[in-house]
Amino acid sequence: MHLREITDANRDAVRALRVRRDQKQFVASVSKSLKDATKSPEANPWYRAVYRGDEPVGFVMLSWKPPAGPYQGCHFIWRLLVDKRHQGQGIGREALTQIAALVRADGATELLTSYDPGDGEPWPFYQKFGFEPTGEIDDGEIVLRLAFPSQ
């Protein structure tokens, strides 16, 4: 599994990735995510396709140390999705492992994300990985932190 830049050659295949119907309330589509990235350059969006071999199986987008705003200077997972056909195979966990390594290599002491609470929410996934609630709520979403031990 690896992360790959989205280019004209793979954009349509990546945009075709879909979560299960019951997950749509928790994560936006790749198309909406790419539009949000274009509309919010101040968030310093960084996004990649998640590949297994030569096949796109997921998508991730971070706000990478934005220069201003509530997450100024932080690494914040804005979107993470694994296509419905590839869920339950460890792809999300492996993508998160690679993202955490990249962020840590960038000098970060933590990685942030948030989720909208509800039936089927992604909290169990993040909790198993080691994320903990910060106690903050951002636009109705619960903010989580993955702290990196000092090296």
UniProtKB/TrEMBL annotation:
Keyword entries, A-Z: Acyltransferase, Transferase
Protein name: GNAT family N-acetyltransferase
Record has Protein biosynthesis as a keyword: no
CDD domains tied to this protein: NAT_SF
UniProt key word NAD: no
Lineage: Bacteria, Bacillati, Actinomycetota, Actinomycetes, Kitasatosporales
Family matches, as InterPro entries: Acyl_CoA_acyltransferase, Bact_Acetyltransf, GNAT_dom, Sper_AcTfrase_N
Taxonomy, superkingdom: Bacteria
SUPFAM superfamilies to which the protein is assigned, alphabetical: Acyl-CoA N-acyltransferases (Nat) (SSF55729)
Pfam family, one: Acetyltransf_1
Domain N-acetyltransferase: 1-149
